[in-house]
Every structure is written in C-alpha cells, then in structure tokens.
Amino acid sequence: MALSFSATAATHTVCAVDCDFTAIQTAHDTAQNGDVIDVQGTLTESNILLSKRLTITSSLASPPIVQAHPEPNLGSNRVFYLFPNAEISMENLIIRHGHSDSQNGGGIFNNGKLTLKNLSLQANSAASGGAVVQRNAVASLNVIGVTFSGNTALAYGGGIYVDAGSVTVRDSTFANNAAWVGGGFYNADLAASGRELVMVNSTFSKNTAPNGGGGLFNDGASVQLLSSTFSGNSLRAIQNNGGLFSVRSSILANSETAGGAADVDCAVFNGAGISDQGNNLVESPGSCTFSHSGPRDQSQLNVDPRLVVLADNGGYGWTHALLAGSPAIDRGDSGESVDQNGMIRPQFASDDVGAVEREDASVPWTSDDTFGDSLTPAGYWGGWIGETRTISFAPFVSNRLESVITDSGVYELFSLSLIH
C-alpha cells in the first residue's frame, strides 16, 4: 500500500552536526503526522520507536547509514520498532547491524503500516526475522526495490519473518541471508487467517537454511510467486509445508546441499503441493509436481536456465542475467510491463522467465548529415555472442570487427568507421 503525505509537510534534517537534530528518535518525537525526516549522514542509533505517519528518507545521492552499532553482531537491540498506529515510508537508506539473540526483527519490527523502497538491510541478526519481522494481523508490509543481504536469524527467516498481516514484495533481492529455516524468507499463518504473500520480479541468491527453504519457506499461508529467480540457495529454493503456493513464470535452479553438492530446487511436505501456473523453468523439481494445463505454456523441467552470476545489471539490487541461448528467453508470461531492473517486457517476442528480461542489445544507428561523418550515438555497439542483430547504416559508413572484449564470454565489441 502506497502512503501519501501532505504537500505542506515539514522536513527535519538529522545528522551528527549542523542539522535540525542529531537523532532520528528526537526528530520523530518532534515531528507532526505527514512530516519528513531527512537523514544526512551515518547515524548510530538503536530501538528507534515509531508511532506517527512519517517518511524517513535522505536527500543525499548516496544512501546514508542508520546502524544500531558500528560493527555487526555486537549491539544489543534492533534498529527500528513500529507501533500499530505507525504509518512509515522508508526510502534511500542503509539499515544495518541491528542485533539481539533474544528479540525478533534485527533491523525492523513492524506492527504498523510500513513501506520500504529503494534501500538496503544489511548484516542484521535476531532470533527470527534477521532483517524484518511482522507478527500483527493489522500490520502491512510493502517492499519495493529493497536488497536484503547478509542478515541472519537463529530460527526462522534470515531476511524476513512474517506470520500475520499482509505482505507484498516487488523488484527486490535476497542474497546471502541465513536462518535455521527459511534463509531468505519465512512465511507463515499462525492464526489460519488466510493471509497471503505476493512476490513479484524478485531474486533469491545464495541464501541458506540447513532445515529447508533456503530461499523461501512457507508454512500454512498462501503464496503467489511471479516472475522471480531463485539460484544457488541451500537447502532448496522453495519449500511448502502447507498452504496454497502458486508459481508462474519463475526460475528455480542451482540449489545446493550444505556441502555444496547439487540439491533439488523444490520440496513439499505435510500433504502440501505447488500450483503450477505455467511458464516456469525448474532445474530439479524434487517432490514438487509441475503439471500446468491451461492458456499458458507448459513449465520446463530438468533444464539448466543458463544464468550469469549475481551482478549489478542496472536495477537497485543485483540480479542474475540470462546467458545467450538460455531456455528462459521468450518462454515467460509475467503480465508485467517491466522486469526487476525496470527494463521493458518483453524485449523480443515474449517475456523471459524469471526476474530479469534479457536486453535487446541492438542500437539504431543513423547518419547526422549527407556525408555521414558523424554518428548518433557515436562509439561502439555491444552485442551478445551467438546472436544475430541487424543494424542499418547511412551511406558512406562501414562497420567492422575491430576488437573483442570478454566479460565472462558474453560480449563482443564492434567499432564503426567512416568511408570518405
């Protein structure tokens, strides 16, 4: 749920020196509903109690750090706590080093209405919900463009633990988080309320959970998983222990055992199952049955998706791009207009499977004058090895292969020269 704020809202700056306040807590206690707290430097502050309708953000180009302690695993409290009446939007921040073995929610404990957008939660730790926990039926969590990395939980949900309230996650990355169960995300429904998790255009990479659900563990709630990519998680990409779990246009691949050997990517227990909505690519289905029959394409099983390692591909969080010749190309059906990186879907004939659309690298070159002695754009064209692209040139212009550069064997570089 997007939060709206008054156009006449006051802005309160917070930093170590020369700002309105030196602590977020003091700024919050002074602020009125609808105000903005502008963080302008690294702040070391823990157990910040929030009970108003505010935006906490930064006007700096590089996101500032809000940390419970300068070092990870050495503090004794979380970073933020939201009361049920709080309506908070957090943007453009790095929230890190919240820590408590006896509390839940190392980074944020949410009882209210919380929107997280374009920020990072790093190296937070707790009993459950290393980065974020939500356990209130009236609470809501809206996550957009957030990176959860290096967060840990002793029990459940290294990145996020939720057992009540509504949750939507879009365009986000869960990487290198760890817990006993649900390394990236633990989703439950303790009150049997029928609550649902919606996960769209998101990446789960190298999350670990020795007792299952390395990427995402579901226990009794409902899940809609759409156009997401899971790679290198241990044990298993997803695990469903109960509840309706639907999967559409997503990649499940490269899962590992604790010892690094290949593992199945999906598992179901307690009579639960997977609702295959079509257009998935699952390298090792395990005990999950993918047998879609409907208007979308059949899911591809026992197939390597040919993913590039996790890298910065232009979005807020790192993602797994598709190599040339990937069977995921043009085999998706996301219904989304853009991918996790904000790239338009589709780039070619159809959507690609997973969180990332493979870019059409062709460039429309044109001549700026009669003699063709300038080009728009000038310089180079980068293409994917193994593909054919057609480029139209104005008269008097030729193209030749002048040099080849290699980025994990992916790109060729062409130069353009003029004939006078």
Q: Which strand order do you get reading across the main beta sheet?
A: 1-2-5-8-12-16-20-23-26-29-32
- Report the helical percentage: under 10%
* Strand-residue proportion: 25-35%
Mean pLDDT: 87
The total strand number stands at 39
Distance between the termini: 60 Å
| Count, helices | 1
| 3D shape | globular
The low-pLDDT segments are: 1-6, 363-420
**Largest β sheet strand count, sense and barrel closure:** 11 strands, parallel
Helix vs. strand class: mainly beta
Cα-atom Rg, whole angstroms?
Answer: 23 Å
Fold and architecture overview:
The chain has 420 residues and is mainly beta. The protein is 2% helix and 33% strand. The strands form six sheets. It has an eleven-stranded parallel β-sheet, with helices on one face. Strands 3-6-9-13-17-21-24-27-30-33-34 form an eleven-stranded parallel β-sheet, with no helix packed on it. α1 links the parallel β1 and β2. The chain is globular, with a radius of gyration of 23 Å. The chain starts with 10 loop residues before the first strand and ends with a strand. The N terminus and C terminus are likely disordered.
